[in-house]
Design goal:
heterodimer; A: 112 residues; mainly beta; six-stranded mixed sheet; five-stranded antiparallel sheet; 0% helix; 54% strand; B: 114 residues; seven-stranded mixed sheet; four-stranded antiparallel sheet; 51% strand; globular
Amino acid sequence: GQQLNQSPQSMFIQEGEDVSMNCTSSSIFNTWLWYKQEPGEGPVLLIALYKAGELTSNGRLTAQFGITRKDSFLNISASIPSDVGIYFCAGPGSSNTGKLIFGQGTTLQVKP
Amino acid sequence: DAMVIQNPRYQVTQFGKPVTLSCSQTLNHNVMYWYQQKSSQAPKLLFHYYDKDFNNEADTPDNFQSRRPNTSFCFLDIRSPGLGDAAMYLCATSRIRQGLYEQYFGPGTRLTVT
């Protein structure tokens, strides 16, 4: 079945550093979604990408829809302690019912 | 603000004692989902309602049931909770339009089984 592979699994960085994480698939996706989940809360949608090659920003976050449609990248610039959380990529499953396939998540820890 | 609300945020139940979790939304979305999430894993879809149509995932245990009495509300019933059902339960909604798959999540209900 469809799977999304996220890397790295976890990151421990210093405040102020830039962060980059990616999500890859063996099959083509027409949509890429990036979510952030803080401890004890539900995932929050950060960025949605709908077009191959699309580059979209949301504050210090930038995400790109890979040209091959099999990958996506999320970058965080000048990290701050509140960036801590788990970042999930997601894309629609093969059916047309709105079901999402999720990556395993990238856990980000930021040292002040 | 339009949102997805889950109640309660924390629920403690006894082994085998039925429990109901609730979700409401003010987004007027036609699709509602229930996910189970354990210890930093990705959310796992249990089932979803596409309008009034119920769609169960093949590996969702019979112990889990759902009701959607109207567009705004959806309930998750766990008939006989086991220790393995302790998890975060997430409700999400989406309005499926052509090519748009964004899901909006509630804050979750943390279920503890004693």
